[in-house]
Design goal:
- By secondary structure, the chain is an alpha/beta fold.
- The chain has 2 domains: 6-92, Reverse transcriptase/Diguanylate cyclase domain (Alpha-Beta Plaits); 104-352, Alpha-Beta Barrel (TIM Barrel).
- Helices cover 45% and strands 21% of the residues.
- It contains 14 helices and 14 strands.
- The protein has helices at 28-40, 68-85, 94-116, 153-163, 166-186, 200-203, 208-219, 232-237, 239-251, 268-273, 283-288, 293-308, 321-329, 346-350, and strands at 6-11, 14-18, 43-45, 48-50, 56-58, 89-91, 119-128, 133-143, 194-198, 226-231, 255-261, 278-281, 312-316, 334-336.
- Helix 3 packs across helix 4 and helix 5 (166-186) packs parallel to helix 7 (208-219).
- It starts with 5 loop residues before the first strand and ends in a 9-residue tail after the last helix.
- The protein binds ligand C2E and magnesium ion (2 copies).
- Residues 138, 197, 229, 259 line the site of one magnesium ion (MG).
- One magnesium ion (MG) binds next to strand 11.
């Protein structure tokens, strides 16, 4: 930076720079590019080489704000955008403000939803292709606002994840799923295991195991009837930690599934060592199996890989009988998708427990 530029550390890994003699406003990006280039230069610390990156948000006086607080807030929003897009830097725009406001109202709404019991669970069967029986139920959160309608998990789960609300929400889901399982069993039904999803934040939460233990103790649910789904991205983020966590969960009797497999970056050497029961092939690959030969080959390869690693393999998002026929021929173990059933409320899914499916 130049001598008359102002550089400050706001806290943690956040810094602010004020260009008091800025180049013609939009040309601030020239300064920012120079900065990113300088940061990208590897450096030596003790005996190791490091390289760091940065995400930069830019706000411009007076267009984006007239006081320091406003300008900082707008730069912050732009910075998050840069982080999400992995673009290096972004300018603030009014559109960002609207998005931020929507996020905020979604966040407040979700907080209330948790307190006011506006959340419900839907259950989607996993079908064992060999026996034609339902061998598991994936538990999916639903938000039913008092005002009517339904808000999709694809909208509220990311907000919950970002704000940390996913932790109380996840505990609620796990507890409600266990309670429901016990209700089914006490009614003389034969419920298959239920599978809950763990987001990256839940999966890296140090209280996860204690929380689940407490829920099992309170509800009387047995670990062997609770399956956990962790996305490939979350699992491979820190393989050593994942290994320890999965090992601890496995020892307690839980079954672990890797969700959305194929969308992350698995290190196969590490995957081989992980205590995992099954891989769930992401829907995007299933969509392609009958579209082109590459699609079919990829799914074929994932099925072979799972079996070579002594894991079961589940196809998710299966919608047609043609896809089922293909998966069956390739030796896929389980399928889940609209072709079997959509995610259903508890009473409707219970009617399927003893049904024999024939594909
Ligand atoms: P996921 O775990 O991969 O769940 C599968 C999603 O695919 C579900 O969407 C399900 O309704 C949808 N799906 C299943 N079969 C088909 C099909 O044949 N066709 C199509 N088009 N879609 C199908 P949903 O319920 O909207 O959930 C989306 C995602 O939200 C889930 O993806 C999961 O990552 C997350 N999620 C949902 N509930 C929870 C929860 O309680 N906790 C956490 N942490 N995440 C959750
Ligand atoms: Mg899942
Ligand atoms: Mg999935």
């Amino acid at each position: 930076m130049r001598a008359d530029d102002f550089v400050a550390r706001l806290g943690g890994d956040e810094f602010a720079i004020v260009l008091t003699h800025p180049p013609a406003s939009r040309a601030a990006s020239r300064v920012v590019r120079k900065l990113l280039k300088a940061l990208a230069e590897p450096f030596k610390l003790e005996h190791r080489r490091y390289a760091i990156g940065a995400s930069i948000g830019i706000s411009v006086y007076p267009d984006d704000g007239l006081d320091a607080n406003t300008l900082l807030r707008q730069a912050d929003l732009a910075m998050y955008q840069a982080k999400q897009r992995r673009s290096g830097f972004e300018y603030f725009s009014d559109e960002l403000n609207t998005v931020a406001q929507q996020q905020l109202s979604l966040e407040n709404g979700l907080r209330q939803a948790l307190d006011h019991g506006e959340l419900a669970l839907a259950y989607q069967p996993k079908l064992d292709l060999a026996s034609g029986r339902i061998v598991g139920l994936e538990v999916l959160a639903r938000w039913l606002p008092r005002s009517g309608g339904m808000i999709e998990p694809s909208r509220f789960i990311p907000v919950a994840e970002e704000t940390g609300l996913i932790l109380p929400l996840g505990r609620w889901v796990a507890r409600a799923a266990c309670e429901q399982w016990i209700i089914w069993r006490n009614a003389g039904l034969n419920p298959p295991p239920v599978a809950i999803n763990l987001s990256p934040r839940q999966f890296s939460d140090e209280h996860l195991i204690d929380d689940i233990d407490a829920i099992l103790a309170d509800t009387g649910m047995a670990a062997e009837y609770l399956q956990l789904e962790v996305t490939e991205t979350a699992a491979m983020d820190n393989p050593q930690r994942t290994f320890d966590m999965l090992d601890a969960l496995r020892q307690r009797g839980f079954h672990v599934y890797i969700d959305d497999f194929g969308t992350g970056h698995s290190n196969l050497a590490q995957l081989k060592l992980m205590p995992i029961d099954a891989l769930k092939i992401d829907k995007s690959f299933i969509d392609d199996v009958l579209v082109d030969s590459d699609g079919a080959e990829i799914v074929h390869a994932i099925i072979r890989l799972s079996h070579a690693l002594n894991m079961r393999v589940v196809a998710e998002g299966v919608e047609t009988v043609e896809q089922v026929a293909f998966l069956k021929k390739q030796g896929c173990d389980e399928i889940q998708g609209y072709v079997v059933a959509k995610p259903l409320p508890p009473d409707r899914v219970a009617a399927l427990f003893d049904q024999q499916f024939d594909f």
